[in-house]
Design a protein that fits this description.
The chain is built from 24 helices and 24 strands. The protein is an alpha/beta fold. The strands form seven sheets. Strands 11, 12, 13, 14, 15, 16 and 17 form a seven-stranded mixed sheet that branches. Strands 8-18-21-7-22 form a five-stranded parallel sheet. A hairpin with a 6-residue loop joins strand 19 and strand 20. Helix 1 packs antiparallel against helix 2. The C terminus is likely disordered.
Length: 745
Amino acid sequence: MKEAEYRNWLHARRWRGNPLTEKAINVRIARLRRVERSLKDLGFDTDNVDAIFERGNFPALLKKLADAIGSSEKPPEKLVPEAENPDGQLNNLLAVTRLYGKFASGEDPNAHDLADADIGDESDDVGTNADTIRAAALTYYIEPARKRGDERVSIRAGDLHNRLGLEQAHANVCQALGGAKFQRLAQVPPPTAEGPPQSSTTTFHYQLSQPLSTHQANAVPVETNPTNLIFFGPPGTGKTYRTTHEAVRLCDGSAPADRAALKERYRELERQQRIGFVTFHQSFSYEDFVEGLRPETNPSAGSASSGFRLEVNKGAFCKIAALADQARTAAGGSQQAGGYDLADRRFWKMGLGTIGAEDHIYEQAIAGDYIVLGWGGDVDWSDAAYNDLAAVRAKWAEVAPADSKPSNISQLWPFRTEMKKGDIIIVPYGNSAFRAVGEVIGDYSYEPSDEGGYNHRRAVNWLLILDKPLPLDSIIEGTFTMRTLYPINRRRIKIEALSRLLGGDGNAISRSQAPQPFVLIIDEINRANISKVFGELITLLEPDKRLGMENEITVKLPYSGDPFGVPLNLHIVATMNTADRSIALLDTALRRRFTFRELMPDPVLLAEAARKTQVDLVAVLTVINARIEYLFDREHQIGHAFFMGCQTRDDVDDVMRDRVLPLLQEYFFEDWSRLAMVLGEYEGVKDGAFLRCEKIAPPPGFNGDDRWRWSVRGKFAPDAYQRLIGRVQPANDRLADPEESSAAE
């Protein structure tokens, strides 16, 4: 690839009426590099795209890329690494390869500019087949699903018709107008008054259809109003399952019906840090949920002494609220399609000045689009001789023999030599937060500083600059160390989360003006002291007081002093087990701010398990819960989820013995007589279907009544469940041996 010439050609190109950003140019070049690295895997004998073009094999390359789209065969690993949706990446790679073909053929960079139609330049490639030529004379009027007033956009057909056909070309128009990228077109009667004559026009409207990626973010409208929802009910009624479904629905606008697909999408959103999960318990506090002071080790520089200091530690709620607020405020709230391409990238931690004392270093670097290193002294290390580490050591020993600090070499060497274009830089804010992310786009340069020090630079394209630092664990496992510069193991990077945070790939088009939704799931919300955990934030949960709403409110957090508000795109979904604590005991303020949705046992859902186990579980659960409600209350019933996974009669017995009977003992406070009533058994029956009951005589000399000793049978009677639901009447004196019990029947 003739990178320098191609970069200049791209600089001259216009997209949506404006010059391409450096970020967009770097993306196109990075993608073309991936194509070059994969040429031999695609069957060519060279890894140079220019050689492919000069030999006349460029159409063959385009065909191979096009044929890979939708193919059942797995594309080369170098071409589409770690891809959940390879077709999406292949489409992008095909587009950038075509674009390079325009450059290689000497075409004007703006020969087919469609800025007036708001079309991205990766979809405006013109085909050369006869259908394209015939279609070139037509004008298409696209009726947007989300209209911009009454505006109708006209597009020249010849500029759009590409290899994928007219429908795929207009799919990109649909995306430009605010719809999903992959959509179905339908021909409708042409306009009469407001459009050109029918003989020269064809009009299309579009509607949503299944996208190429099942999990394409925001493919359908998402919830725009803040949601505060609590699922409550007895244990085993599917509350946690419902939170999974609800969280995915709130993020995507809909949720897969298939359980496996739902879980996979849920895990994907978790990896993107768009779904958070926390479980409340008796010891859970405000400091765990919002923020508090935590001790951090504080080793002294250059010594073995150690100590600790108290630092503000953000809780689960603050962390996800910060991510949601960043998504809300970024780019005016609009979200770009897909995430930033991080395949084959190397990651570095790069400090830019001491926080509080050298903030100007960071600010100047951001403004000047560079990173700068303070180690390495006043020496210009640009000479190629310093590609050799030994030469660097020798030069440093010559110019600064008294300065033996190893960082002058151990920090300078990777900054100068090992860091490459395309590497990703993460700028820390302390050891547990970050404030900027950039992509290296330039080689090492020596730029003497007026203040001394900080003389060594590399040009970067800032991909993300944060007004407020975000928690480091939202994109990286663990924390940073105090060293200025070092590589970060790729295994520590949360690729999906960082990719989402960096947004689109430089040429993506906004699909929705609503910010990306985030969901915090709180399991067992009633097990903690709600007033203590939420504190003053209970007021901020109200929908109209969220950030971005008309009556937004912020408070000053007590430990950090930071202003804090709850963004409108953060939804809260919680569960509450009514058997643990009655809903009537909940904090009244919480009840006013949440919607409560009751989930009760549904025995009908056990029909399939009943068929597999040959036990009438529908009737069993119905009878048990009716008796519990009569003897206790409706909030302490047994949920259907206990039996959902049963495959055999033994599985049912295990659930009854290990889960249901202990729960009933707890419900009735060890009152076995009432537990026996639930099972359809009575005092005085020696051996019931589930329980044994033995008489205990009073001790000698004690004038008292006989008592009963209850215990669970080692093996339930063969007809235990028929007897429980009243289909078999129990004998008055059942035998302990199940076989004899069966014979007596």
